[in-house]
Design a protein that fits this description.
293 residues, elongated, 0% strand
């Protein structure tokens, strides 16, 4: 009888241990992956001095995950040990309770994807990790103005704003109201040129690029100038680049083929835009003709 009771107590301790381990693992990964950025953002806003803000910037998401896991697992251990609840005397019941708690935790603290991406990019830019900031959410296709602003900061500090902005889906579809299209003029030469491309103001871009060495132009600027030469009867700047010109001719050839199959009626069709995105979605030309459709 005592042996059976001993085995029963051993099984109970294992059941509790398994439940607490599962709960701890969930809390750590959930908090560090999805909630840490918001918590760090709130802590920075509550900082009283620049020194405190700088100290908070040194924290990493895994620090928040570890702290949350320690706190909540500690509470769970106390509850299991102190409360004489029979539900903890059964492994299946313990697991059901753990999963119900996890489900409720997710429902009550469900993070907003846009906020997570925005806050992560902002934090990475503030600590100088511009490459990581630029890679964060680069496949995300529903950016806010702040997400685009953080991406521009990251790419500009890497010196590749005109090279990489339109490569990512973040550069193809812009929200209706963005900081660089709402009347607030950009404050650097690279951003001014990007501003012109985003507004499809190619004559102004040509005017700005006319004072730059041709070898300093980046990919999107080269593509925009080739397009400008083709669209303008009297271009201010004659830009010649054989490789870019050939690529543009291929772009227009595919465009004409698609429009023979489905004639243009007003705006380009979604089918045409999708086909062009597959082949030329990483070019400025795609943004110029199909962006914001």
């Amino acid at each position: 009888m005592n042996l059976r009771k001993k085995h029963s107590n051993l099984f109970l301790r294992r059941a509790r241990f398994i439940g607490i381990v599962l709960f701890g693992a969930f809390v750590y990964f959930y908090t560090s992956r999805l909630q840490a950025e918001q918590i760090l953002h709130i802590l920075r806003e509550q900082a009283q001095t620049p020194e405190q803000s700088q100290q908070i910037l040194q924290l990493q998401p895994w620090h928040i995950g570890l702290a949350a896991m320690t706190l909540l697992v500690g509470i769970a251990v106390i509850v299991v040990r102190v409360m004489p609840v029979r539900i903890f005397h059964s492994l299946p019941r313990s697991l059901v309770l753990i999963f119900c708690t996890i489900f409720l935790f997710c429902v009550l603290t469900s993070p907003d994807e846009q906020s997570v991406i925005q806050q992560r990019m902002e934090r990475l830019n503030l600590i100088g990790l511009y490459d990581e900031a630029a890679k964060t959410g680069e496949r995300y296709e529903n950016p806010t103005a702040e997400i685009l602003k953080q991406r521009i900061i990251a790419l500009e500090n890497q010196g590749c704003l005109g090279e990489k902005f339109f490569i990512s889906p973040l550069g193809r579809t812009l929200p209706d109201s963005t900081f660089f299209l709402s009347g607030q003029e950009p404050d650097s030469a690279a951003r001014i040129r990007l501003f012109c491309m985003l507004r499809r103001d190619l004559p102004r871009l040509a005017e700005l690029c006319a004072t730059l060495p041709s070898d300093s132009l980046q990919r999107a600027e080269e593509e925009a100038l080739v397009l400008y030469n083709h669209k303008s009867a009297n271009p201010l700047l004659i830009y010649q680049n054989t490789a870019v010109e050939t690529n543009y001719n291929d772009f227009t050839a595919l465009q004409k083929t698609l429009r023979k199959e489905s004639p243009l009626k007003g705006k380009p069709s979604k089918a045409e835009a999708n086909a062009m995105r597959e082949a030329y979605g990483d070019t400025y030309w795609y943004y110029y003709f199909y962006g914001n459709l």
